[in-house]
Specification:
Length: 155
């Protein structure tokens, strides 16, 4: 497309301040010199040092104020002093089938023909307590209510 051709009568006449100046600053635009000065200022300022935070160390897991005697353990985990590794740690519990489980399964089998139900739930199972540190079997809580201590203190 060709540029428009003006005759001398049609050409716009600019007077004084109206005449456009090429290379002048336009709104929202910075001249090259200002950009260079800004970049030099940024380089001359020292980079701001952000202090790095030290990674938080995990809290020790054996910060229990008191330990439960092994003969007092019941269904849930509890902090104990392990006689094997001598560390105060929360016990890990595991549900295992015991005498009560077998008895209830026999009764369910005779009455309802659903002898597998006691083996699928934890309601009728015994609880084994293991050390949270070394994994040693410490005690077994039976559904009948008694606790059998399996690990004794070694001197």
């Amino acid at each position: 497309m060709a540029s428009p051709q003006y005759t001398s009568e049609q050409q716009p006449q600019y007077t004084g301040e109206q005449q456009p100046q090429y290379g002048a600053q336009q709104p929202g635009m910075q001249p090259i010199q200002e950009k260079q000065q800004y970049q030099q200022q940024q380089q001359s300022f020292p980079q701001q040092q952000i202090p790095q935070q030290q990674p938080q160390q995990p809290l020790p897991q054996n910060n229990f104020a008191s330990a439960m005697p092994l003969q007092s353990l019941q269904q849930g985990p509890a902090p104990v002093d392990c006689p094997m590794c001598r560390v105060r740690q929360m016990t890990r519990v595991e549900f295992v089938s015991g005498g009560t489980t077998h008895l209830v399964a026999l009764l369910c089998c005779l009455g309802l023909c659903c002898g597998c139900i006691p083996y699928l739930t934890t309601w009728f199972k015994d609880v084994e307590h293991k050390c949270g540190n070394c994994g040693a079997l410490l005690a077994v809580w039976h559904r009948s209510g008694r606790t059998e201590v399996l690990a004794h203190a070694t001197v």
